[in-house]
Design goal:
This protein is an alpha+beta fold. The radius of gyration is 22 Å and the shape is globular. Strand 18, helix 19 and strand 19 form a beta-alpha-beta unit. The protein is 33% helix and 17% strand. The strands form 6 sheets. It has a 7-stranded antiparallel β-sheet with strand order 8-3-2-12-11-1-22, with helices on one face. Strands 9-10-15-16-20-21 form a 6-stranded antiparallel β-sheet. A 3-stranded mixed β-sheet has the order 17-18-19. It has a domain of 224 residues: Glutamine Phosphoribosylpyrophosphate, subunit 1, domain 1. It binds glycine (GLY). Glycine binds next to strand 12.
Amino acid sequence: MGSLLGRSHGWDRLTVNRGAATVHPLATRSAMRILQSGGNAIDAAISASLVLGVVDGHNSGIGGGCLVLIRRSNGQILAIDGRETAGQAAHEGMFLRDGKADPKLSQDGPLACAVPSQIAAIKHMHTQAGRLPWRELFEDAHKAAFDGAPASKSIGRTIAAEADQLRKYPASKAIYFHADGTPIREGEPWVQKDLASTLQNIADHGAEWFYEGPFAKACADYLESIGGVLTRQDFLAYQPKERAAIRTKYRNYEVIGFPPPSSGGMHIAQMLMMLEPYPVGAWMRSRPDAYYHLLCEAMKRAFADRAHWLGDSDFVDVPQGLLAPEYSVDRMADFLDSRSTDGIEHGWPNGVLEREILSSEPSPGEDRKHTTHLTAADEEGNWVAMTCTVNTSWGCKVTVPGTGVMLNNQMDDFSIAPGTPNAFGLVGSESNAVAPGKRPLSSMSPTIVLDSTGQPVLTAGAAGGPRIINATLQVLLRVLDGGCSVAEALAAPRVHHQWRPDQLLFEDQTGIDSPWAITPETRQRLSAMGHPLKASGALAISQAIHRQGNRLAAAHDPRAQGASES
Ligand code: GLY
């Protein structure tokens, strides 16, 4: 802290500690070790993300991508888009067979993979705002891969669940199964020598080794041999992008969210604007039926807009009017405080023309777990919210031989064809159709909240496909409106509605003790209002950090076996 005294950003008036939260104790430990050895929050997040790619590889890894929101100690906001990108050979019909969409092709196997982007994103983070040498940030991940780490419960569960697909690819078979063909199980020591060697090469030779050198060649050659379309040129062309963050006033706060190709920041902002006129905190405490009804109605309207208007803003016009205050008033004009609104469709923000609607059938989607959110903050006032993903568990199930790198299946986040929901039951429009060089629409929602003096006070984000958006929103509301501690906010039960299908999911099977449980009486009232309720297990996994006065409190979601330290 000494070197900061006298700077004008105001942070030095606070004696603030540091903190980190992730879904795995080894990743959180790595972030804290980096913070304790002179690194800043950016270094800590990079190191933790690399460790997660080794010990929690079904959710994220260097074969996938990430979206990163950084608030630097000087107040600068960086929104780093490390989203995977479709190759130049990608096209709208690539997942059609005999004129019909085949979602298996966008979810498993070589066509499902877009250019991996996490390494490019962390290189950009490091160049812009990191402090420790690049090489040091790989040490913990390398050690976990080389020495081995006990396989977690979710590693064991997801290998077993995806065993048939994983066995199809020899390098995946060699890594995720014993020689006798049985899958790696929870608690078993799990060594990943090829991945350790890949990490060492990137540490020694930089991101170029991955995008311009041996990895790009090995990956493109292998994919070609099994029917994929990514090329070395696609790897060479990959660039992370700095985006303008979405900044919204909510009560006395400024909420900073991630813009397209994520839908998260846009719809969290939109829903906050819809909710702001209502006494959210009071209803949360004393009229939970009114609170969940209001939330659900905001969610339906936002997700109807998501399905129609959202896509990669480098390819389609995502109307800025979605964030106009008068649009949220307009959107809620038919809100009834005691009745679910039927027949909600997308709205008409000012100044946009119609575009083709891809009609769709409702689908519940699958309850597949995936993606990971991590966060770190340091004593200087650097805060990082980072969501990383290979999309659904173990991505496309293809490991590049000799590298230990499991590739993503992010192509499934595009709308692959009219009437074909993706793995999360999400439907989309032409806005999110496949195109060469395009980035698929994401729900990842790394979020940072500033107080009225411009200092960071809260950060949150989540894993869980479209549930990310609604879970992040609910964590923000519990802290900002409900006055909850961040641990209480994460433990509180959540609801989720994504417009199609018309069902209001509520958590009642998480086994989490919370004073905010959604009671049978509340459920009865919601049903009487016309909400089609469905009980659910965990709706997303969220990590968060909250500053209370001059203390940071980091918390991990009790629905997963994570760790937080501050
Ligand atoms: N792959 C999940 C998401 O980006 O929303």
